Amino acid sequence: MEESRSIKHQRSIAIMNYKGGVGKTTVTYLLGLYLTLTTGREVLIVDIDAQCSLTFAVGFQPDEISLSRHNVYQLVHPTKWPNFSRLRVEDYVKTIPGLTAAPLYIVPGAFEVDNLDLEITDSIHDRRERGKSEFFLYCKQLINSFGKYRYVLVDTPPNKMYLTQGLLRACNFFIPVTIPDGISIYGMPRLLQWVQQIPDEERPTMLGYVLNGINRSGGSPSGMVVSQQIAVSTLNDALEPYLRQHDDVATRDEPCLGEIPRLDQIAKFMGADKDVRLDFARHTSGQPTVDRCLKQIANSVFARIERHHA
Predict the structure, then answer these.
(1) What is the CATH number assigned to the segment(s) 3-309?
(2) What are 77-86's pLDDT values in tens digits?
(3) What is the DSSP-derived secondary structure letter of residue 289?
(4) Roughly how many angstroms between the first and final C-alpha of the chain, as a whole number?
(5) How do residues 119-169 score in pLDDT, each as one tens digit?
(6) Which residues of 238-263 are buried (b: 16+ CB within 10 A; e: fewer)?
């Protein structure tokens, strides 16, 4: 195993898409929660989006984010790169307000991430040839330093900023997320073209994709409405060349990890109403329950990672 890959956290996952509004934050939060419930192990979720949607969703307030000295901006700022050995990463990990039933933790986001790419770019240019490699190495060391957490999930923004690039390379796996509609699925081929450009020894392995916002129709054999069936077929056709080229991907059998229905319980939960999780086992409008869908996705992620490392 190459040195650059060997320092990666074995169960680190970047949640990705080149398009916004497809449910990356939803999947990061719910998958993190269900991985703790499935395995009983500690899970860490990391918010690197300047909008801080994941940080808001878990229950932090805007003033808490603005005033904190321990957030993702402070954690990856160029001033930290040369001093990794003195970095106390646990200072940046926070418990999730009101969530006591599962060992799920977060590195909160920061609004200042909006300006971080300029600071990283300046620092890379100042360091010349070694700048980019130093930053990418720092990101891998950073994610790997969270070794006490069984899984580390990174909620990424829909861009190619240095922070997104660094954390994607730092993760051992990635999971694309999309809504099956004619617009959202076009972010997936673009994402895979970008991943394809990462050197082999640093490229993360695709675990499979997650479909979000599924609408069900009782008269459909697959359960999806016809427009979503067409979108999924188009998506699978677009993914086929990538999956065929990479023999080591854990998705050679089935590219889809699972589906998340479009239900009010999820929207309320993402609005920091933790009590609504009690409704995740409730059937609504002929849809499968949220509980069933998330258990399937968490079990698939667990099985594919273990198979990959076997």
Answers:
(1) 3.40.50.300
(2) 999 988 888 9
(3) P
(4) 14
(5) 998 998 887 767 888 999 999 999 999 999 999 999 999 988 999 999 999
(6) ebeebbeebeebbbeeebbbbbbbeb
